[in-house]
Write a structure and sequence with these properties.
The structure holds two protein chains of two kinds. Chain A contains four helices and eight strands. By secondary structure, chain A is of the alpha+beta class. In chain B, 43% of the residues are buried. Classes of the chains: A alpha+beta, B alpha/beta. Chain B: GO terms for molecular function: GTP binding.
Chain lengths: 122, 211
C-alpha cells in the first residue's frame, strides 16, 4: 500500500463551530493550524472573533517554529436594524473562511466573491 | 439646507459643551507600510506643528501605539477636536526572515519581530476603545487583505464611523478606484500623505464623519 503524503485539509461545518464558546473556538482553530492543517470554515468567524484570533496568533509566534497564520475571509455582510442602531450592535452575517499556517497557505488573489490560494508543503 | 446644517452643528456643539463630551478617539489602522504614521505626522504637523513618530520603508516601524490628545481640525468654518491614535500595522503573520532580507542581523530581526507581535496585540486591543477609525490602505496594493476585511467588519459590527484612505496616490501605479469598488459601502478619500495631495478633502471628510 502506498502511503499518501500531503497536507490535511479539514472542512469545518457551521454546526461544529456553533457548539463551541468563542474562546474554545479560537483555541481549536489555532491548535489545528499550528499542527499544520488547513481549515475551511463553512460560516467563518465574526469580525470580533477574527480580531481575537489575530491577537492570539501573535502570542504564539515563535522564530523558526511558527510565523503566524494566513486567513482569508470574504467581507462580512451587516444587517443594520433599528434595534442594532439603537444598541450600536449590528448583526453580522459571516462567510466562508480559509485559515492555515503562513508557511503553507498563500493567497494568490481575492475579491468580493472569490478566493484563490495555493497550498504548499515546503 | 445650509441653515439647517448650521443649526444642527450649533445644537450639537451646545450639547457637547453642556455635557463636557470628551474628544472622539480616532484610531489610524491599516496593514504595515500603508503610510499610517506618515498620515498621523501630517495631521499632527498641520494642526499642532509637531510630529508623531518615525517612518521607515521597513515594515513594522511603529511597534507601540502612539496617542496624541486634543488635535483640533478646522474645516468648513467649524472645528473638531480629536484624540488621534497611531496604531502599529496589523498582520496575521510576522516572519523575522523578512527583516533579515532588509539587511538587519538575526538578533535584531528577531527582536523587531517580537516587538511587532506585541504591537499587533496592542492595536487589536485599541479597537474596543475607539469612537471611529481611519483605515489607511496602500492604493498600489490589493485592498482585499484580511486586515482590511477584519477592521471594516469590526467597525460595522459596532456601528462606528469609518473613513477609508487610499494612500500613495502620488505613485503612478496607484489605483484608488479599486479600493472604492472593493468597499463601496464606506466613504473613501484618495490622498498622498507624503506629498499632502488632496489633504484638504481628507480634513473635510474627517469633520463630516467624526464631528
Amino acid at each position: 500500500m502506498i502511503a499518501m503524503q500531503g497536507i490535511q485539509m479539514d472542512l469545518v461545518s457551521e454546526d461544529r463551530l456553533a457548539k463551541m464558546p468563542p474562546v474554545e473556538k479560537i483555541r481549536f482553530i489555532l491548535d489545528e493550524v499550528k499542527s499544520g492543517k488547513i481549515l475551511v470554515l463553512e460560516k467563518g468567524l465574526t469580525p470580533e472573533e477574527e480580531a481575537t484570533l489575530i491577537e492570539m496568533t501573535m502570542t504564539q509566534i515563535q522564530p523558526d517554529d511558527f510565523a503566524g497564520i494566513e486567513m482569508e475571509s470574504y467581507p462580512s455582510q451587516t444587517d443594520s436594524s433599528l434595534i442594532g442602531k439603537l444598541f450600536k450592535k449590528n448583526v453580522v452575517r459571516t462567510r466562508l473562511t480559509v485559515i492555515g499556517p503562513a508557511n503553507k497557505l498563500k493567497t494568490l488573489k481575492k475579491d468580493r466573491d472569490m478566493i484563490s490560494a495555493i497550498v504548499s508543503n515546503k | 439646507m445650509g441653515v439647517i446644517r448650521s443649526f444642527r452643528k450649533n445644537f450639537s456643539n451646545f450639547f457637547k459643551k453642556l455635557f463636557n463630551k470628551k474628544n472622539a478617539r480616532i484610531g489610524i489602522y491599516g496593514p504595515p507600510n500603508a503610510g499610517k504614521t506618515t498620515l498621523a505626522n501630517r495631521i499632527v504637523r498641520d494642526w499642532t506643528g509637531d510630529a508623531m513618530g518615525s517612518v521607515s520603508h521597513i515594515a513594522h516601524e511603529t511597534r507601540r501605539a502612539r496617542r496624541r490628545e486634543g488635535v483640533t481640525i478646522q474645516s468648513n468654518g467649524g472645528s473638531i477636536s480629536l484624540d488621534i491614535i497611531d496604531t502599529p500595522g496589523l498582520a496575521t503573520k510576522i516572519d523575522f526572515h523578512e527583516f533579515m532580507e532588509q539587511g538587519m542581523n538575526e538578533a535584531e530581526s528577531k527582536r523587531r519581530a517580537k516587538e511587532a507581535t506585541e504591537g499587533v496585540i496592542e492595536a487589536v486591543k485599541w479597537l474596543e476603545n475607539l469612537d471611529g477609525v481611519i483605515l489607511v490602505m496602500d492604493a498600489t496594493e490589493d485592498p482585499y487583505t484580511q486586515v482590511n476585511v477584519t477592521v471594516i467588519g469590526n467597525m460595522e459590527a459596532r456601528s462606528l464611523p469609518l473613513l477609508i484612505v487610499a494612500n500613495k496616490v502620488d505613485l503612478p501605479e496607484s489605483s484608488p478606484t479599486t479600493i472604492r469598488e472593493a468597499f463601496p459601502q464606506h466613504p473613501m478619500v484618495a490622498i498622498s500623505a507624503l506629498e499632502g495631495k488632496n489633504i484638504d478633502t481628507f480634513y473635510d471628510e474627517i469633520a463630516k464623519r467624526f464631528g
